[in-house]
Design brief:
Blueprint: H1 2-139, H2 143-151, H3 153-158, H4 164-240, H5 244-253, H6 258-285, H7 289-304, E1 324-327, E2 332-333, E3 336-337, E4 341-344, E5 350-352, E6 357-364, E7 370-377, E8 380-387, E9 389-390, E10 397-398, E11 403-406, E12 419-425, E13 428-430
Antiparallel strand pairs: 1-4, 2-3, 4-12, 5-11, 6-7, 6-10, 7-8, 8-12, 9-11, 12-13
Helix pairs in contact: 1-4, 5-6, 6-7
Length: about 425
């Protein structure tokens, strides 16, 4: 019993000790689990926080992008509105030059007519002086005899004894000679009087010419300033909102001939109309009715054309430039019948729009020099080539008779600048004379 009792406590002690060890381990495990859970939770919390931060950043980015997109839309809308305002201003400024340009062209024509008259007067003076010199040369040998006869008629006739019949014949010859001398003297007197009259008329014409030139330069400066203001407004419009205008102008620049340019322009406009219709349908599918309406309105405007077309009522406005017609429509040329009208204008003469419409192209073109294509509407287009300066830009709306440019400077020597005016209806050329 003692041994058992002795062993029992020992076993108990051992068991207790073993139990204490397990308890200690259990206690250790109990304390370790919360630490592990805390680290995991921290990681999860960090991940959640990172995800929340990323989500907030994404939302902020999306909000910023939406804000930027809206800002760009507002800017584009403002640009379009500014473009429309500038285009309307350009059209208004162009229309304002019509009367001033008409007065300037009248003055330029008056100056050209005066210049021609002065040239004619100089030519007449030169011809009269040449005739006077010839008459004086013919009369000079007879003057000594006429003087002797006037001083000593009897001595002259009796110097050589002649039969009576021959003396009478001599007297008749002398009388005829004196009559001819008197006639030539009167002709010389009349021509000298005409020369004096021409000198007076020439002085008057030159004085008038100086006044007209002064008036012309003043009017030209006024028209140029107004045309330049319209051009600047149109350039601002083009810079603010590019449209099919640039595509039309680019298509014309790539053309190899005027006919090719007209064809390319019409093809580009047809494609632009189709693109606008597609854009309108896409906007409708996106329920953006405002954009759809704007696209269809623009397509409708393109289909209607840039102007009212042309009519014979335009003929009252006259030629697009002062001067004279050098080659008429249909006149024989080296390349066949003329397909337009060629004018010989004064130096730096103003050039006016031959119809109301929109500028399709303005700039240098092949061998035509400075050229512009003006869309009058209803598939009528005027081509003006040979200008020195162009005062309009592609896309600009101009009024009939408005200033569109100037001819080159010409001093009178060398090849004279000319303005070629052609009217086209689709692919065919039309006689422009009835419409100018």
């Amino acid at each position: 019993m003692f041994l058992c009792a002795a062993h029992a406590p020992a076993g108990a002690v051992s068991t207790h000790a073993g139990g204490g060890t397990a308890h200690a381990r259990a206690g250790h495990a109990t304390h370790a689990t919360p630490h592990a859970a805390t680290a995991s939770e921290q990681r999860i919390r960090q991940q959640l926080e990172a995800a929340r931060t990323a989500h907030e950043t994404l939302l902020a980015r999306e909000q910023q992008q939406a804000h930027d997109l809206e800002a760009r839309r507002r800017e584009e809308q403002q640009a379009r509105e500014q473009a429309r305002a500038d285009a309307e201003k350009a059209a208004s400024l162009s229309a304002a030059t019509v009367d001033a340009t008409a007065r300037l062209q009248q003055t330029e024509q008056q100056a050209a007519d005066l210049d021609d008259r002065i040239k004619d007067l100089h030519a007449e003076q030169a011809a009269l002086r040449q005739q006077l010199a010839a008459q004086v040369a013919r009369l000079a040998p007879l003057l000594p005899l006429a003087e002797r006869l006037s001083l000593y008629p009897a001595d002259t006739l009796l110097a050589v004894p002649l039969p009576a019949d021959r003396a009478v014949t001599g007297l008749l010859v002398v009388h005829g000679m004196m009559t001819d001398i008197a006639r030539q003297a009167r002709a010389i007197h009349d021509r000298r009087a005409r020369l004096l009259a021409l000198d007076g008329e020439l002085a008057s014409q030159q004085q008038q010419m100086r006044q007209v030139v002064t008036q012309r330069e003043t009017q030209r400066d006024t028209v140029n300033r107004a045309a330049h203001a319209a051009l600047e407004a149109q350039q601002r419009s083009n810079a603010a909102a590019q449209s099919a205008t640039q595509a039309v102008e680019d298509a014309a620049r790539r053309a190899s001939s005027v006919q090719d340019a007209i064809t390319r322009i019409e093809e580009t406009e047809d494609q632009a109309e189709k693109n606008l219709e597609q854009a309108a349908r896409a906007a409708e599918r996106a329920h953006n009715m405002q954009a759809a309406t704007a696209a269809r309105r623009q397509a409708h405007e393109m289909a209607d054309g840039a102007g009212p077309g042309i009519s014979t009522a335009n003929a009252s406005a006259g030629a697009p430039v002062a001067g004279t017609v050098l080659t008429a429509w249909g006149h024989p040329t080296e390349s066949g019948p003329a397909t337009g009208i060629t004018y010989a204008p004064p130096s730096r003469a103003s050039v006016r729009a031959p119809c109301t419409g929109r500028i399709d192209f303005a700039g240098p073109f092949r061998t035509y020099g400075q050229m512009m294509i003006l869309d009058c509407g209803k598939h009528y287009r005027f081509v003006l080539a040979g200008l020195g300066e162009i005062a309009v830009a592609a896309g600009q709306q101009v009024s009939h008779g408005a200033a569109v440019g100037q001819m080159p400077q010409w001093s009178g020597s060398g090849a004279r600048p000319t303005l070629f005016v052609q009217l086209r209806h689709g692919g065919s050329t039309v006689n422009p004379a009835p419409y100018l």
